[in-house]
Amino acid sequence: HPSARSSLTCPHCLKQSNTFDPFLCISLPIPLRQTRALNVTLVLQCERWRFVRVGLAVPLLGTVADLREMVARESRVPAEQVILAEVSPRGLLRSLSDPEALRAAGEAAPVYAFQPPPARRAGCPRSLPTSPAVPRPEGPRLLPSAARSSDCLHRAPGGRILLLLCNTAGTGPQLARFGPPLVLREERGVSWEQLQQNILAQLRGVLRGEVRPQGTGALFRIRLAGGSAPCTYLSPQDPRPLCHPAIDRALQLCGAGGPPHVRLTVEWDSSTKERLFGSIQEEVVQDAESVRQQQQAHGQQHSCTLDECFQLYTKEEQVRA
After folding, report:
1. Is the terminal CB of the chain with fewer CB neighbours within 10 Å at N or C?
2. CB 37 within 8 A of CB 294
3. Are 81 and 118 spatial neighbours (Cβ–Cβ below 8 Å)?
4. Domains of the chain, start order
5. How far, CA to CA in Å, does 166 sit from each of 149, 179, 234, 310?
6. What is the pLDDT of residues 220-242, one digit of tens each?
């Protein structure tokens, strides 16, 4: 009869005990798959208006920190610069923080990885948009008085913050995201008019209609995404809308990992959206070859060899009292 040797080593005195057990048949464990396929859309500064979806084999028991490192290697961007967020067809859902378990990432909505624009060095003048297509915008003031933010609480606002934005149009079941999601680095003391111009400048590549220079009204509303009810809107009447107290709260609640940022939703009236952007929908995303490879690898029934089963059976274990 064949026999199996079982060795037991004391972790304190290192004394080893060996026993031999004869057997006619043996039950072997089957190694389980340790990874799953997860698609991540990369939004990089070097590929403006181009979005690439990559396929990753992420660990089943990993954390978002593991995903951040994988995205950093894939995109050649430092891990501390990567912003991970779930973006649904209706807008931004949530940002992902490093301590979170990875098993829930991407279940509610596709995962996007954003690289922030480079930080401006001290003393460098801020470049303003010079295109004639983005002068003072006109349009109705869409923000109701009940939703206006309070006056700025900061006497001397300074510094710059990262804004993660999605554009939406429609209401209720017809609410839908359109155009590319954006990452802006803005001064805290920026005015509503300048903030609106900077957002329009980022959308210049998809603008179809002309923004006439008459008037200084708000073309859209800006709402903090993912906040608790009631919704918090930034006000065009605020001299410094990014100094709203809710912005500070959003920065404080930003999870660990990646640069702190604020998620905003830019809400367009359907008629204004049609006039300026036409029937544009979400951004066009190109799939890298890794998407097909990971789907094929994880879509197939997991198989293993008899040798792998024996390796798992004979794997050394730590016996606890």
Report:
1. C
2. yes
3. no
4. 35-118+152-210+217-286 (3.10.20.90)
5. 20, 8, 15, 52
6. 999 998 755 567 899 898 899 99
